[in-house]
């Protein structure tokens, strides 16, 4: 691989931005396609599929074969709240291939005994998110039922363009949340991206069932998201 292309690719990967290395299988030449850049008519549909699925593929364009080597940032799931739902969600998320982090300043809940093998941060979300910002390849689920803990990371997730943003609570609870988020400066379009009540509507009632509904909705959001390819 051309050293300049490799440098560009590494920069994108370190910044958690998606990119596809397009290599002409005939002469070995290549170029880097970043998500949001113009792929051209020859690669538009194939690049969109690759960005959405994360699967590399060989495609034919203008009578030549090209290898589209897609590099997506590892999908992250950030859960606000060390609650029973989070405990059930942790092993499921691991099986599905998500890097999961649980954030909760309440040390009575955020214990290693309850979250063995999970990245657990017993800190306020604003402190954590200042160090490790959210991004487009992160899903955020707020499940504490406490506005003092949930509201700020929800605002951050919407501003960062997280591919999924969900919040636990009834419609009445969410209506109050909407008003608070408006007071924080968010408009209706952004607030409308929040999935609330959280998770797919499968009639879930127990923490484990709610965790299944959340993870299913997160996966659907990741695989069906709008991909910026022109």
Largest sheet: 5 strands, parallel
> How much is the average pLDDT?
93
Q: What's the alpha carbon Rg, rounded to whole Å?
A: 20 Å
Q: Pairing-aware structural class of the strands and helices?
A: alpha/beta
Whole-Å distance between the termini? Answer: 25 Å
Q: N-to-C SSE series?
A: HEEHEEEHEEHEHEHHH
Strand line-up across the major sheet:
7-6-5-8-9
Give a verbal description of the structure:
By secondary structure, the protein is an alpha/beta fold. It folds into 2 domains: about 5-70, no CATH class; about 75-225, 3-Layer(aba) Sandwich (Rossmann fold), CATH 3.40.50.720. Helix content is about 40%, strand content about 20%. It has 8 helices and 9 strands. It has helices spanning about 5-15, 45-55, 85-95, 125-130, 145-160, 170-185, 190, 205-225, and strands at about 20-25, 30-35, 55-60, 65-70, 75-80, 100-105, 120, 140, 165. The strands form 2 sheets. Strands 7-6-5-8-9 form a 5-stranded parallel β-sheet, sandwiched between helices. The longest helix has 17 residues, at about 205-225. The chain is elongated. The two termini are about 25 Å apart. The model has no long low-confidence stretch (mean pLDDT about 95).
List the keywords:
single chain; alpha/beta; about 40% helix; 8 helices; 5-stranded parallel beta sheet
